[in-house]
Predict the 3D structure of the following.
Amino acid sequence: MSKPYILVVRQLGGIGDVLMMSCVYKGLREKYPKHTIKLVTSGVFLSGALIDVAEHNSYIDEIHVIEPQDSTPKHTKEVWHQYFGGAPSMEDDLIWQKAALAIDLNTPCVDYEWHVTPIVKPRWQIWCEAAGVVPSSYAPIYKITKDEAKAADEYAKTHWAGKQVVGLGLTANDKKRALGIGKLQTICEDLTARGLHVVTIDPTCSVPGYDYLVGKRIRDLIPLISKMNACISVDSGILHMAGAVQTPVIGIFGSTDCRMRMGNYIGSAIDSRRFAECAPCWYDYPCNRIPGNGHKPFECFSKIDTHLIVEETVRWVNKTSQQSH
């Protein structure tokens, strides 16, 4: 007789979400050691990034690739219709009908962030509560394979030997969370002046004149981030990739709350609530409604001084360098 199985459905959201919720599977394994854990996710979303992350979580036994329009449970459909004006279609005849336990991880944070004020729970706790588990650790789970580690070692020896390397994430899926190009250029210049080697990270672009990692798959990029001395990122996948492999990360937060997203990571959060009374605004962006504001930068990001970002980065690079000796 085959083992009973637990079916987890997650085919929406970004890389950061999938890494933050990775501890759910650890909690399921600890609570149900005799069950098989199966994940339903998307192969199309972010060019297979969700599968890349799931394949590096040793607590997931099977991955089923079913696209969103084929596997969206009813509650997800209702929530997306309520908040986003539409939703994928739902199919009733799915493998979760035979599961001992079926868990929908698409919607818990959406429900929480739209209905609970003030925000008091980190995202990983919300997902674990939705699954009914309390894992022994909430840290993100991403296991780099031996071949991936070897390839990253070889790349680092060829390109970064003898250098203190800082990764700089350039953009985010939500452009309202991104720093302006002028600030990114200034950060690159100031870090270089401090003797650090800047590597810009983005799927499609780079900052002219600086080293870059462009077009890397997640399974290739994360091992390279693990070789860096520190990483700078807004609230995007890069932030969570660095956190998952314990590379010190300087997180820059505007409209979102660092307490929900960065509590398990090594590094510092530069939280715009220190500079803007309206932060975090949770996607409301009141600055967009100010008469005459036009296309000026969002107030939260416009008030973050690049000097603070650079000094925090240098501090973490020096700290990790001292620990390695």
Q: What stands out?
A: The mean pLDDT is 86.
